[in-house]
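so the lab meeting is tmrw and i was supposed to have these ready like two days ago... anyway. pasting both below. for each one the top line is the aa sequence and the line under it is the structure tokens. i havent really looked at them closely yet so no promises
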Amino acid sequence: LVLRLRGGHCQVPCGIFDDPKLVADVKEAIATIKKAMVQINELSAKLDAQNINQMTRWVNTKEEHAGKIISLMSEYCLCQRVKPVSDPKTPFKSEADYVAALQAHHKVMTCAVKCKQTVDPANADALDSAAAEMSKMYLPA
């Protein structure tokens, strides 16, 4: 499924949207989540006050970036860009394409939640894969 979506970045909608920026923002958030997981795992080897402080900061950073991805998917992509086939502004030619788009965005969101819940880098890799699949809809061919 490769669809090109066009629309706005706010709920007005204003019609201003930068697809490559959306993808770059998601990629940057995932890279930050991956780094946070590595740092948390390394710092947990020695639990002193400084490491606990740094771990707390990394956990907060991981939470913030996973939350940003969830917000982008739900408030930005799903609310503004992924429209049902019955909508005249839909980019989808079939119900199957629409459902596939919903599933791709949902997969990103569930992977981001899993990253909030764990420090297993495999979950960040799963998020990266899900985001790469979803991103195909927003990048030029």
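ok protien two:
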Amino acid sequence: MDPSRITLRPFKLSDADDMLVWAGDDRVTRSLRWKTLTSKDEALAFIEQACIPHPWRRSICIDDRSIGFVSVFPGSGDDRCRADLGYAIGVEYWGKGITTRAVKMATAQVFNDFPEIVRLQAFASVENKASQRVLERAGFVKEGLLRKYSYLKGSIQDLLVFSFLSTDHS
């Protein structure tokens, strides 16, 4: 895959059909707090209500078609020095280095867009080896295991925490 074809941009309502392809797939959404989308109307509502107003959610695109997302949730108050990163991509694009490239692009943009952030952190389920590899290949450092840390889809999960510091940024 030519890396120049991969871009990050804000979501548009016209992304609804493309979003439904990947966000309508349980294999993609099983690690997300989102429910799996089931219709174009749900995709439109999600883009309008959750993606567009989000402080930093970008569509991962190939040739300007949405194939996934990367989001950053900046902290506030005493937590303004850090932000949480999340991402997902359509199944047909798994294992091709696209997510790693998108995470690297997002990391560079976030430290530029939010100069007060010095720590970007991401969580991955202990079972999600692919997500762990994405973070490691994007330069994140695995810090440790958070036992019984969070509920996801009705089950309490052990999560690994990864970080990337602004001083790691080249």
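from a quick look at the 2nd one: The longest strand covers residues 141-152. The two ends are 24 Å apart (CA to CA). will dig more after coffe
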